[in-house]
Fold this sequence. Notes:
By secondary structure, the chain is mostly beta strands.
Amino acid sequence: QVQLVESGGGSVQSGGSLRLSCAASGFTYTSACMGWFRQAPAKEREGVARMVTSGGFTYYADSVKDRFTISLDNAKNTAALQMNSLKPEDTAMYYCASHPNYCGGNWRVFSYWGQGTQVTVSS
């Protein structure tokens, strides 16, 4: 019933920007955690940014802080990740994920996942 669908990935040059979007459906939560994770080849999946849907808590990985911005549009039931000043190190598959009451960094705990969208940054 719950579905998350990412879009907006692509290939850009270093220093470029991309905006990822996650469309959610089937949720009945008044407050939950929405997050973005990424996984590069041969590397562990890592948390990029996440926040509670009711506000009050936002987290960014040190590697993306001041470059990426997570935002939620509750009216449209979407989450976005604005990525600026992209670096080759940002190249990865990006996933949108959600959990009703957990908003930590362990991706294995998250309940729902999108299919992923590829981001490739060339040097």
